[in-house]
């Protein structure tokens, strides 16, 4: 299985490298005040990809951290509740009068 994962990643990297080599053309980007930036197309695509990926990655890790914190708090609460219910009720002394039985009418 590890071999198949490595083969998959090598194929993906090969496709990306072939795309970068065949599309290595400068692209002019018009900036403010008449400035023009010459950027290679693969670099521009990489920057656009990262511009979309990084905010979603930050959101994913934030939500995951919040859920882990919540699960930890709920597990602690559950352990506290189990500890409260696990302790036996205090024993009554032998000379204490017993409670009268309930009579339902």
From TrEMBL:
It comes from Sphingomonas tagetis. Keywords: Cell membrane, Membrane, Transmembrane, Transmembrane helix. The chain crosses the membrane at residues 44-63. It comes from the Bacteria. The keyword Repeat does not apply. Residues 23-81 form the Lipopolysaccharide assembly protein A domain. It holds the Pfam family LapA_dom. Residues 85-105 are annotated as: Disordered. This is Lipopolysaccharide assembly protein A domain-containing protein. InterPro entries: LapA_dom. One of its GO terms (cellular component) is plasma membrane.
């Amino acid at each position: 299985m590890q071999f198949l994962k490595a083969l998959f990643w090598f194929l993906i990297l090969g496709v990306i490298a072939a795309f970068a080599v065949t599309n290595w053309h400068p692209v002019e980007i018009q900036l403010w005040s008449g400035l023009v930036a010459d950027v290679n197309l693969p670099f521009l695509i990489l920057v656009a990809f990262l511009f979309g990926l990084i905010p979603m990655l930050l959101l994913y890790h934030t939500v995951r951290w919040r859920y882990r914190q919540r699960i930890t708090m709920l597990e602690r609460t559950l352990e506290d509740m189990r500890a409260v219910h696990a302790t036996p009720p205090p024993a009554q002394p032998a000379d204490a009068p017993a409670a009268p039985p309930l009579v339902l009418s």
